[in-house]
Amino acid sequence: MADVATIFKVYSETGKEIEVRDKIVSDLKPKSIQLEEVAFGIKVIKVMFVHTDEEGSTAIEEKLKGIKNVTEVEVSDQTLL
Fold first, then answer.
1. Distances from the Cα of 16 to the Cαs of 8, 20, 29, 35, 80, in angstroms?
2. What pLDDT digit, counting tens, does each position of 3-31 carry?
3. In the chain, what are the domains?
């Protein structure tokens, strides 16, 4: 069983990025999180979680999608640790 680092890009409704970021931190306890400007005021929240390869990232992705004001979630990167 190996550890896996998965980075998600989380998109939210415009102007709700801080609220969504704070909710992710309080509810899901990510390894790291940062807010990154993509273009012209559009921001993406990049979130990294460390989990086992058996757990997979699907459950985390579903939890992220369930947060209020989240419009899209995508796996940006995934690597074995």
1. 17, 6, 19, 12, 32
2. 999 999 999 998 999 999 999 999 999 99
3. 3-73 (3.30.70.260)
